Amino acid sequence: IKGAKAATFLLTDPFLPRSQFYCLTQMKHAAATLPCSEEICVKIDNLLQNTHGVAHSDDLNQSFSNYLNEIQLALISLHQQIADTWFQFRQEDVA
Prior knowledge:
Strand content: under 5%
Largest sheet: none
Structural class: mainly alpha
Radius of gyration: 16 Å
Low-confidence stretches: none
Number of helices: 5
Helix content: 55-70%
Mean pLDDT: 93
């Protein structure tokens, strides 16, 4: 197993249900069916455009680690935006 191929597979495979690309694509399809989804879909599109693999095992370095950290931070931000958009209710909305 080559590190670069494994990392690329886990990040970019469109058919692997746990790949970053697959998950983001499914999230976008689901979000697009909900109201107030425009900003979230844009954020998902940005993540999809930034999803890339690794050409060589030598590329599994600090730069790649920084890339993964940036993706993680972007996913945290996306999660918060989803929570704020669809799961934060004011008291008067619940009544």
